[in-house]
Amino acid sequence: MKKNIITICTIATLATGCATNSAHWGYSGDEGPKNWATISTDNYACSGKNQSPINLTHFIQADLPSIKFNYQAGGNEIINNGHTVQINYQSGSSIKVDGKIFNLLQFHFHTPSENNINNKSFPLEAHLVHADKNGELAVVAVMFKEGAANKGLEQAWAMMPKHPGDKNTFDHAVNVNNIMPLNRDYYRFNGSLTTPPCSEGVRWLVMKQALTASKQQIATFSEVLHEPNNRPLQKINARTVLN
Ligand SMILES: [Zn+2]
Hints:
two-stranded parallel ribbon; alpha/beta; Carbonic Anhydrase II; globular; 11-stranded mixed β-sheet; 15% helix; binds zinc ion
C-alpha cells in the first residue's frame, strides 16, 4: 500500500504536486535526505552517482547553444505540498533543448538554494520543471540573492498557501517570464530530481544571472515551510559542468 501511494505520488508530483508523499520523507530526522534511499525501494536512485544538487564549479567551456524559450502566462494554481510551494502550469509553455520540446509543468522554490555556484549558496532558488513527450525531464534553475523586492514574485506571494495541502487559484494566470533573468546564459550539467524518488537523467540548466528578492519575500516563503527545503550538496563524481 505504501509503495502504491508513493508511486502514484511520484507521477503526480510532476504535474499536480504531491501532498500524500509528505508523510514519507522530509528534510530532517529519520525521514531526512540521508535516509531517502532506504525509506522506499522506489527511491533507489537517491544513492546514485548523478544526483542533484551540486556545487557548480570547474566549468568546461562548451559554447552552449541558446535555449529557445516559449513561455506564456499559464500558472493557474499555487499549492503548498508540505515540501515546497509550487505553481502548476497549464499546457502551452515550453523550452527547446537538444532539438526536443520540453513542456513546462510547474515551478517551485527552495530556501536556501539547493545548487551552489562556485561554493556560493543563494537564499532562494526557483526550479522550472519541464518534461518532453517521452517523460524526459529538464529543469531550469533561477537563483535569487537578497536585494530589491522581486515584482515577478508578488502575484504568487500574495496567494501564498500557508499550510500543507492548501491550494489557491489565480484569477489571472501567472507568467513565469516574470521570474526569468534578461540574460539567459546558463550552466548545464546532468543530474536528478532533488526530491524522492531522485530520478536521474535530468537536464539541469542553471541561469547565470541571479535575480533579487527582498528579505521579506524570502521570509514569507520560509515561514510557510517551517524548515529549510534544500537537499544537501551531492558528489559530482564523473560529471562536468558546461559553461
Ligand atoms: Zn526543486
